[in-house]
Specification:
Elements (H helix, E strand, L loop, with lengths): L1 E8 L3 E3 L4 H10 L3 H8 L14 E2 L3 E7 L3 E13 L3 H14 L1 E4 L2 E11 L7 E6 L6 E6 L2 E6 L5 H18 L9 E6 L5 E6 L2 E6 L2 E5 L2 H10 L12 E4 L8
Antiparallel strand pairs: 1-5, 1-7, 2-5, 3-5, 4-5, 6-7, 8-14, 8-15, 9-10, 11-14, 12-13
Amino acid sequence: MRLEIRLEPDRLGVLPLQYREALQAMIYRHLPREIGQPLHDGAYWQSERPLKLFVFSQLHGEVQYRPGEGVEIRGPVWFRFASPERDLALGLAAGLLRFGRIRIATLEFAVREIATLALPALEERLVVRALSPITVYRTLEIEGKRRTQYYNPLHEEFGELVVANLRRKASVLGVEGREGTVRVQALSVHPRGKRLECYKGTWIEGWVGRFLLEGPAEYLRLALEAGLGAKNSQGFGYVEEVPDREVPRR
């Protein structure tokens, strides 16, 4: 299920560049306790590694990013939230509407509207654009030290890791779908699409742009409702569908 949450600031001002931490915390605060607590603890879904199947975008609308300074809020803003768990999305919507007001870092907002977004008709290909950076990585041991290696969309490992992540989500949900090849291909990723985002003191590399997804419809739906790549519950990998008329078909 996908939501668009529209907000009106009490006053204009500047959010810190790391506001995604505050946005994530706000989401947890407004979920029902019986959902929010096990979700926060990584116990909502049973898996070998903690899995939090929700994703949210960055703030969009009347925003101006000022590198090194912050994010200027100039008027109404919105962000997207999605989860394959309908009760989770509905619980968040109910919590936000009940309180009617939220705080993100240094600014307060009125919740003006929450709209549900219908899923498109899905076949076996889907073009998406990232509303928040997609990140994938491996943890490697180099000279006796563990290091995080991030990959960009031009690396073969990028697509492989995105697909492996999708398969893990599908396995946990029990929606493996039909057997078939799943592919992820970058369509228009520019060097300016690279994003370095700080989350709780750690710098994370991600990428925005357009991507072509091919595979069973169940996996395409999961990409839209649970995000692409890693760290979705930290606000990475929210994607939305775009027309693919200009993309040549094989």
